[in-house]
Amino acid sequence: MKAVVIHQTGGPEVLQYQALLPPEPGPTDLIVRNQAIGVNYIDTYQRSGQYPLALPIVIGLEAAGEVIAVGEDVKAFTTGDRVAYGNHIGAYAEETRVPEDKAIPLPNGLEPRLAAAALLQGMTAHYLVNSTYPLTAGQVCLVHAAAGGVGLLLTQMASRIGARVIATVSTNEKAELARRAGADEVILYNETDFAAATLDLTGGAGVNVVYDSVGKTTFEGSLQVLQPRGYLVLFGQSSGPVGPIDPLRLSEKSLFLTRPSLFNYVDTREQLLWRAGAVFEAIQHQQLQLRIERTLKLKEAAQAHRLLQSRTTTGKLLLIP
Ligand code: NDP
Questions:
Q1: Is the residue at 127 inside a domain?
Q2: In angstroms, rounded to a whole number, what is the distance separating the alpha carbons of residues 79 and 83?
Q3: Are residues 149 and 87 located together in one domain of the fold?
Q4: How distant, in Å, are the alpha carbons of 8, 191, 213, 236 from that of 309?
């Protein structure tokens, strides 16, 4: 079976498409034949070494496909079942060994491509608006990179809750997508000072919460636009890591700063099934629109990483084995 392996960290060129022995299930594992694999920004951090891993390793956290073998103690799944997973490493492969407690049954009628496009980024948007900072109708939030994979889903969920969504993006085309996803106002943050514009839009009051996945280039402005006791939810670093910060910086407005990770919000079976179920149901009821930007072959994983990091993509990139 073929997989994308990294033997050393570095640029997209370290992603090697090669033959590996097919995985065998442990007692509580499934072997999943992946039909669609989700590409996520975290994959680029793992590839570059920003998030260190023991090497060599098959990267990728998200896929959907068919169960082709099960371990002897597996109770809840059988061969032929359709499943997805979004928090288990090893997805850039034709076949992946997945612990049964990480597998999510696919609802009838939900295509693997849609499941792989939605799961990780959808569960992320879900925990950000429901659990990290439970957003309510009438509140104001700022969403950075609102036309990205997480960004488009987060904007839709925040808008459905009834919050006012101020979005930032880098191009007019992305601004249109953010608006269609429900953003009330969109700021081109590479042309305009987004902090000044956000304060302007809110009559100087600022926002309740900033969902910031961009990091280095937005962090200071994100602090500036918060209301007293506001929340800075720093959940990514697409522009680079934020440097050290003195906690005293938060005292001027009694701000909250959190750096959440999906893995802590799906760390029980109950939490995982809740979030995945909510995302899948929203897709099936067309309350959440997915935008699949491009579908590439598994062996083109390096190209997918170049595209994602080039800042030209909107929505989701998929790899197909
Ligand atoms: P995106 O599709 O959002 O791609 C990244 C976007 O970031 C770009 O499209 C771009 O949008 C923006 N960006 C701003 N500055 C830069 C830069 N210097 N280089 C590249 N991109 C830049 O990716 P994902 O949806 O996969 O992930 C979004 C972020 O969320 C990532 O940082 C990821 O790590 C994080 N994340 C965190 C999770 C968590 O639980 N903590 C879980 C999932 C994702 P624009 O052109 O509009 O500026």
A1: no
A2: 11
A3: no
A4: 19, 20, 14, 13
Q: DSSP state, 89? A: S
Q: How far is C-alpha 160 from the chain's CA centre?
A: 19
Task: Assign 137 a pLDDT band (cuts: 50, 70, 90).
Answer: very high
Element (H, E) at 6: strand 2-6
* Closest atom, ligand 1, to C-alpha of 262: 40
Residue 155 CA to ligand 1 centre (angstroms): 14
Do the domain assignments include residue 38?
Answer: yes
Predicted local distance difference test score (pLDDT) of residue 2: 98
Structural domain harbouring 185: 137-259
Which letter does DSSP use for residue 287 in this model? Answer: S
Round to whole Å and give the CA distance between 316 and 321.
16
For residue 299, is it within any domain? yes
Choosing from 236, 259, 282, the residue where a domain stops is: 259
Domain shared by 57 and 15, yes or no: yes
Q: What is the DSSP letter of 189?
A: T
Tell me which residues have their CB closer than 6 angstroms to ligand 1: 40-42, 121, 124, 145, 147-151, 169-170, 174, 213-214, 217, 235-239, 260-262, 308-309, 311, 313
Choose one of 235, 259, 283: the last residue of a domain: 259
Distance 71 CA to ligand 1 centre (A): 37
* Amino acid (one-letter) located at 129: V
Residue 86 lies in a domain: yes
| 247-274 residue pLDDT tens | 999 999 999 999 999 999 999 999 999 9
Q: Which of these, 59, 121, 122, 124, lies nearest to 96 by C-alpha position? A: 59
Looking at the fold, whether 45 and 72 belong to one and the same domain comes out as yes
Q: pTM for this one?
A: 0.97
Number of H helices, E strands in the chain: 9, 16
